[in-house]
Specification:
The chain is mostly helical and about 250 residues long. The protein has eleven helices and two strands. It has a two-stranded antiparallel sheet. A hairpin with a 3-residue loop joins strand 1 and strand 2. Helix 5 crosses helix 9, helix 5 packs parallel to helix 10 and helix 6 runs antiparallel to helix 7. The C terminus is likely disordered.
Length: about 250
């Protein structure tokens, strides 16, 4: 028999798949019960759970609506709807990485053209710090390197968007570090990708910088998926404050 938690999960899946978009009014309990093939009582309980987690908002006299899952502040906290979706749905890691692939690719393209001397110094320092830290626990320096590139894009909208997702982006870096860096071949590939990106930006080669940034994130996506296809348990960190990665078996 379906439980309210199962219904909550299915409704969250509808939101992730776009079947229920942010700002859209939630169908009535009767409509949802018919659509999901369950009782109205279960639907009502599931909606209360989602409301408690901030995934939906209810307004007196108007009904319930899908909340914006994006954080409204500079950094998502542990109670944000996006954090709940990340924690409860394994696919959200890949959704976030797809966003990184596109936005960081654009940021690299702009940074290669717009970086000032001070930007290049910051990027160089971030790149050097990345090489000075333990590759098995360097999620924060890794993220810092990419963040320095984003800030050098000098596009305030792009910077604001990625700052708004800072914690979630850091979690994707931590997932990469936890799962890929313990594997020597993958770690060496990532180091080469970072170096290629660094050189392209400092030499002002915008197209090469964009390609290096997108190729890097695409490599992370395909590598994580490949590990899962092989039956490996992929660690999905949920606490960006704890930057020490969980040990997993290496190849």
């Amino acid at each position: 028999m379906a439980q309210s938690e199962d219904i909550s999960f299915r409704l969250e899946q509808l939101i992730l798949d776009g079947g229920l978009a942010p700002g859209q009014k939630i169908p009535s309990e009767r409509q949802l019960a018919f659509r999901l093939g369950v009782s109205r009582a279960l639907v009502r309980e599931a909606l209360h759970e989602l409301q408690g987690r901030g995934v939906i908002k209810t307004y007196h006299g108007k009904g319930s609506f899908v909340a914006s899952i994006l954080p409204g502040s500079s950094e998502a906290d542990d109670s944000s709807p996006l954090m709940h979706l990340y924690s409860g749905h394994s696919r959200t890691l890949y959704d976030l990485l797809e966003v990184r692939e596109q936005l960081e690719g654009q940021a690299a393209w702009l940074a290669a053209q717009r970086a000032t001397n001070m930007d290049r110094i910051r990027i160089t320092r971030a790149f050097e710090r990345l090489g000075e830290t333990d590759p098995l626990s360097n999620a924060e320096p890794d993220h810092g390197f990419h963040q320095a590139i984003v800030e050098a894009s000098h596009n305030p909208v792009l910077v604001h968007i990625l700052n708004g997702l800072k914690k979630m982006m850091l979690l994707t870096v931590q997932a990469s570090v936890a799962n890929l860096n313990p594997r020597e071949e993958m770690r060496q590939t990532i180091m080469k990708q970072h170096h290629r990106l660094y050189r392209a930006i400092l030499s002002g080669r915008a197209a090469a910088a964009q390609k290096a940034a997108t190729s890097h994130v695409r490599f992370v996506i395909t590598s994580l998926k490949h590990l899962e296809e092989e039956g490996a348990s992929v660690t999905r960190p949920t606490d960006a404050k704890n930057l020490h990665c969980t040990n997993i078996a290496t190849q």
